[in-house]
Design brief:
The complex is a heterodimer of chains A (471) and B (629). Chain A contains 19 helices and 16 strands. Chain A has helices at 12-15, 54-77, 79-89, 96-102, 108-113, 133-138, 161-174, 194-202, 217-222, 231-241, 260-273, 290-296, 305-321, 341-347, 374-384, 404-415, 432-440, 455-458, 461-468; strands spanning 26-32, 34-35, 47-48, 146-153, 177-187, 207-213, 246-253, 277-282, 325-328, 331-333, 351-355, 360-363, 366-370, 396-401, 444-447, 450-453. In chain A, the strands form 4 sheets. A 9-stranded mixed sheet of chain A has the order 9-10-8-7-6-5-4-1-11, with helices on both faces. In chain A, helix 2 runs parallel beside helix 7, helix 7 (161-174) packs parallel to helix 8 and helix 17 runs antiparallel to helix 19. Chain A is globular. By secondary structure, chain B is α+β, with helices and mostly antiparallel strands. Chain B has 5 domains: 17-197, P-loop containing nucleotide triphosphate hydrolases (Rossmann fold), CATH 3.40.50; 210-301, Elongation Factor Tu (Ef-tu), domain 3, CATH 2.40.30; 315-385, Elongation Factor G (Translational Gtpase), domain 3 (Alpha-Beta Plaits); 392-507, Alpha-Beta Plaits; 511-624, Alpha-Beta Plaits. Chain B is built from 14 helices and 33 strands. In chain B, helix 12 runs antiparallel to helix 14. The longest helix of chain B is centred in the C-terminal third of the chain and has 18 residues, at 530-547. Chain B is globular, with a radius of gyration of 28 Å. Classes of the chains: A alpha/beta (471), B alpha+beta (629). At the A-B interface, helix 13, strand 12, helix 16 and helix 19 of A face helix 13 of B.
Chain lengths: 471, 629
């Protein structure tokens, strides 16, 4: 069994990647937190605006869009090096309100201080992580070309078309966007219309991700979705009519009450819709959400691991037979060209800016994220005015400087989600014992020199990574 | 307390023997014993308001929190009855432990008294524990002063309960004093009754010194403090003493009385109660019930006071540190506890599943709880406590004791040590004689519970129309688990329980082992009656199935008697262990979850290549203690 040895250089997987890190591309994530209503399972940064009157809602939305464009401009103006330096410097947010609002975890100091455990048994120890200035120096002077823009939510399509367009054009104004860049907007079937999609197409949106979730009425009701089972297909047709051919459907499976037959009929509808891409997520019930409380109180059945595994298998079988390639744990595409470039960026440890409430950015082993609360986010950006990013008042809620061990764990955790796994040059060192354990447990295998999950190991990925990192 | 001490403490007054009254208060938890004691102290004006803590006499935190007394305390109450122009009297209050686990200590404390205040809550009535202690007091020939407390409560039923008391103690319901310790109403009448009715101590003032140890505790600066009552002769500061049972000899460093703060005194004579220290390193050198006499040529011929016995652990449990690195700290902590608690024993043992730990012996379940709680609270050592068990006597097949020529009998406190069935001729288990008081409405459920625990009814007496006293012979193993909780829940909290140790009886007992992936997990083995084995095995396998996380392969969970499998469950192989989504590029959260998971895994014990989380041991062992029905 052979896996990359890096010729004794333990950090080569970071320095000379084939498809990971900087090679994976550069994306911009913009978050739109507005939703008509917060669904019972949702634990993401969302602001329910369904009960606000039109005037207040319009005001909130335009202030938010202004805040996002201002925040984007400041992040871009900071330059990659300046941004990295700020993230590294920024132990905790300087703004006292930030901590309470975000609940975002440890200051970066916690992780930087712990340069532990890097002893894979060969080669020299890596440079001390806490004082690893070399990375900041290695960062480019200027921002690379943007290969993907992703506007997620929330429900981005709750925004007026001109506001959404403002977000897209802001990115084009601040950064160089590649001519073939993937520009995705998440759309809710309730808010779909040819006119709205047409307006998006005009500013260069070339991909829509439609939140279908299910084609079974009672499952939609359980999930507290406002649309009926026919709405997603109508939305797909409207997207096509608006000239956006690249459409993805978002699905959820393993919802309490969803039967095997329900799932089969949903999958059949998906094939009928004839879309390019499908994202399918196993429902996760988080603590603190209404679903979490209902499960604790015995009012809602929890998710069933075996049922979810069975649904996952059917997802794979039915859609693969229907011409899809299951290229990532939760994503399927009609051929390599239909894969989501922005999502792949995440899995390949790529670089991205994250702008908006609760959005996360990543640049070369540094992560940062903004406040989750929409009003606080807006307020912080407005307070910051024209000051440089990361200085003074800031929407920043937390930062994290990953040590080498954490970067290695992430590389595996993310890279193994992709069907073909990780290229040997992108693979962090793995102890021989750990690798043997993961292989003999039937969770991972090597194919064409790449380390990848077995069919079974894919849905047991966390266990696989746990074994692989047991050095 | 040496002469050089500068604080202005007036020397204690000395009293003639006929003006001394030694008494205790017999009461159930919550019936107001400590409040009454506090009131009595206030009446003597010895404790000013500023220093008045609620429940003055209960000194340990655990005691105060639980409202129980574990260690006996004493207080000296000078009291001048109304209308008595003569000298004041000295009332010595000897506070007794309030729990069945400590009934031997109770009996020793009672032996230091001539009278007992029987304190009963006017709303609740007599409880089994009170009656048991009352019987001990009657056995010790004490004058009983029945008192109804909490007469100010709206729910009080003084007439009814006075009749109940009279029926048990004898006498007329009208003789029962009625007080409210909370408001102080009637407390002076109790004091007067003590003076009038409790006889003064009698003893041989010029005979050889004999004093009864009724409590001892450990002080880190002075060594063991010994609480005693002089029966004959006299004890003086500086004298050399000899303890008859343990053979300890030493010089009295400090001699004092509690007034109620410790106050030095030169000498104590017949009937007096005091405390001494004599450089006694640990409490096991000054055991409750032992006799203090003066060292010297004649000391060995002094007859000991009757009733001494060695403390006898009844309930056993393995204590293991959650983190095996804590083992040395656990040993130190047990050493320290032992200094203060002669009735608790421990010896090292090892478990394949839990590592290094100790098999500890306790007087009872409360004692076990108190010790583990103190370990947690005072020493901060998280513990896994194995299911409590009792000490069995196992007669070996075909092995003859060389000295007696009888078949050899071994004692087994750890289920692991039970010999194989083919090497066992007979197993005897300890039993108890339990007394349960319950409202008549719940007699059925109580009998059902007792029979479910293999009890044999000995007697059933109606104390009144509403209250029944049930007497059962029960295997000790049947009541050391959740018996008391069950009793309470089946009687809506109204029943009360007390028991005394009975004889060893033969029983058809087997060891049920639990196997994970084919390998026995020693920590889960239990000795149960053959008739209960299947139910126990089934309950445990079901519980473990839920407690142990799914592994990469199917894991059989089996219960077995010897090689015979009696129950089986399967922990199915896990099929999903991946997070579905990472919102908005939030990878940190995902990674942190994984890091947390990894941290948790470090705390797992690997048994039969199965990773068992610590919580599974804790919860399963808790269940093991509660699957009797």
């Amino acid at each position: 069994m052979t896996v990359a040895t890096h010729d004794g250089d333990d950090t080569r997987w970071l320095d000379a990647p084939v498809e990971s890190g900087a090679r994976a591309g550069f994306g911009v994530y913009l978050h739109v937190p507005f939703c008509h209503h917060r669904c019972g399972y949702c634990d993401f940064a969302v602001a329910a605006v369904g009960r606000l009157d039109d005037a207040r809602r319009g005001d909130l939305e335009s202030r938010y869009v202004a805040a996002v464009t201002a925040d984007l401009a400041r992040q871009v103006a900071a330059t990659p090096r300046g941004l990295l330096a700020a993230v590294s410097r920024e132990g905790a947010p300087t703004d006292g309100t930030a901590k309470g609002a975000s609940g975002a975890g440890a200051p970066a100091g916690d992780t930087t201080g712990a340069a532990v455990g890097w002893s894979p048994g060969q080669g020299n120890a890596p440079p001390g992580v806490g004082t690893w200035d070399g990375v900041a120096d290695a960062a480019p002077e200027t921002w690379p070309e943007v290969t993907s823009i992703y506007i997620g939510g929330g429900t981005p399509t709750l925004l007026a078309p001109e506001q959404l367009a403002r977000l897209v054009t802001a990115v084009r104004r601040e950064l160089d966007v590649a001519a073939d860049a993937e520009v995705t907007v998440e759309a809710n079937p309730e808010t779909a219309s040819s006119a709205r999609f047409g307006a998006l197409a005009e500013v260069g949106v070339n991909r829509l991700s439609i939140g279908a979730q299910s084609f079974t009425p009672h499952v939609l009701r359980t999930l507290e979705r406002g649309h009926g089972p026919d709405a997603p297909l109508a939305a797909v047709a409207q997207a096509r009519a608006a000239g956006i051919a690249d459409v993805s459907l978002d699905l959820m499976y393993g919802t309490p009450g969803e039967s095997a037959a329900d799932w089969e009929s949903t999958l059949a509808q998906v094939l009928l819709a004839d879309v390019q891409h499908v994202s399918a997520y196993a429902l996760t019930i988080h603590e603190g959400t209404p679903f979490g409380r209902r499960v604790d109180g015995g009012l809602l059945a929890g998710v069933d691991e075996d049922r979810q595994a069975a649904r996952f298998e059917r997802l794979n079988q039915v859609l693969t037979a229907g011409g899809f390639e299951h290229y990532e744990v939760s994503n399927l595409a009609r051929g390599p060209g239909a894969r989501s470039r922005h999502n792949l960026l995440y899995w390949r440890h790529g670089h991205y800016l994250g702008v908006g409430a609760g959005a996360h950015g990543h640049l070369d082993g540094r992560r940062w994220w903004s406040q989750r609360s929409t009003p606080r986010y807006i307020h912080a950006v407005e307070q910051a005015g024209a000051a440089p990013w990361g200085v003074g008042a800031s929407p920043l809620a937390g930062t994290e400087v990953l040590n080498l061990e954490q970067r290695a764990a992430e590389r595996l955790l993310l890279g193994l989600r992709v069907r073909e796994g990780i290229h040997p040059c992108d693979l962090p060192p793995i102890s021989a014992l750990a690798l043997e354990d993961a292989c003999t447990s039937g969770l991972v295998e090597t194919a064409c020199g790449r380390l990848r999950c077995t069919d079974r190991g894919w849905f047991l990925l966390d266990d696989a990574v746990d074994r692989l990192t047991a050095w | 307390m040496r002469p050089s001490r500068t604080t202005e403490v007036p020397p204690p007054v000395t009293y003639r023997t006929e003006r001394i009254r030694n008494f205790c208060i017999v009461a159930h938890v919550d019936h107001g014993k400590s409040t009454l004691a506090d009131r009595m102290l206030q009446l003597t004006e010895l404790v000013d308001e500023r220093n008045m803590r609620s429940q003055y006499l209960d000194k340990m935190d655990i005691e105060r929190e639980r409202g129980i007394t574990i260690k006996a305390q004493t207080a000296r109450l000078p009291y001048k009855p109304l209308g008595d122009a003569a000298d004041e009297y000295l009332l010595n209050l000897i506070d007794t432990p309030g729990h069945v686990d400590f009934s031997y200590e109770v009996s020793r404390a009672l032996n230091a008294c001539e009278g007992a205040v029987l304190l009963v809550d006017a709303a609740q009535g007599m409880e089994a524990q009170t009656i048991a202690n009352l019987y001990l007091a009657l056995e010790a020939d004490l004058e009983i002063i029945p008192v109804l407390n909490k007469i100010d409560l709206p729910a009080a039923r003084p007439d009814e309960i006075a009749a109940e008391i009279a029926a048990i103690v004898g006498g007329e319901p009208e003789d029962v004093l009625r007080i409210s310790a909370k408001t102080g109403e009637g407390v002076d009448a109790v004091m007067d009754a003590i003076v009038d009715r409790v006889p003064p101590p009698s003893g041989v003032a010029d005979g050889p010194t004999r004093a009864l140890i009724f409590d001892s505790n450990y002080d880190p600066y002075r060594g063991t403090l010994v609480y005693f009552r002089v029966v004959d002769g006299q004890l003086r500061a500086g004298e050399r003493i000899h303890l008859l049972a343990t053979g300890f000899e030493g010089e009295i460093d400090d001699l004092a009385v509690h007034a109620p703060e410790e106050t030095p005194i030169d000498a104590l004579g017949v009937g007096e109660v005091g405390v001494l220290s004599a450089a006694i390193k640990e409490v096991s050198q000054a055991k409750v019930g032992d006799t203090i006499t003066l060292a010297g040529r004649g000391s060995r011929t002094v007859p000991p006071l009757p009733g001494y016995r060695e403390p006898l652990p009844m309930v056993f449990s393995g204590l293991y540190p959650v983190d095996s690195d804590d083992f040395p700290q656990l040993r130190d902590a047990l050493d320290k506890l032992r200094l203060n608690d002669a009735s608790f024993s421990y010896e090292p043992e090892t478990s394949a599943a839990l590592g290094f730990g100790f098999r500890c012996g306790f007087l009872g379940l409360l004692h076990l709880e108190i010790v583990t709680e103190r370990l947690d609270r005072e020493f901060d050592i998280p513990l896994v406590t194995t299911a409590p068990s009792v000490r069995y006597r196992v007669t070996l097949e075909g092995v003859v004791d060389e000295e007696t020529g009888e078949p050899q009998v071994i004692e087994v406190a750890n289920p692991q040590d039970l010999p194989e069935p083919n090497r066992t001729a007979a197993i005897h288990e300890p039993t108890v004689n339990a007394m349960i008081l319950t409202p008549t409405a719940y007699v059925g459920p109580v009998m059902q519970l007792c029979e479910g625990r293999r009890g044999t009814m000995l007697a059933m007496d109606y104390l009144t129309e509403e209250r029944v006293e049930l007497r059962y012979a029960l295997p000790l193993a049947g009541i050391i688990t959740d018996f008391f909780d069950q009793l309470k829940s089946r009687t809506r909290g109204y029943a009360s329980l007390d028991y005394e140790v009975g004889e060893y009886l033969e029983a058809d007992l087997v060891r049920v082992d639990l196997l994970l992936n084919g390998e026995p997990v020693d920590a889960f083995s239990s000795i149960v009656h053959r008739d209960d084995a299947y139910a126990f095995g089934k309950a445990m396998t079901e519980k473990l199935k839920d407690l142990i996380p799914r592994q990469l392969f199917d894991v059989p969970v089996q219960a077995a008697i010897g090689a015979k499998i009696i129950a089986r469950e399967t922990i199915k192989a896990k099929r999903k262990d991946v997070l579905a989504k990472c919102y908005g590029g939030d990878v940190s959260r995902k990674r942190k979850l994984l890091e947390k998971q990894k941290e948790g895994k470090k705390k797992m014990k690997s048994v039969g290549s199965v990773d068992v989380p610590q919580e599974a041991f804790v919860s399963a062992l808790r269940t093991a203690a509660g699957t009797g029905d």
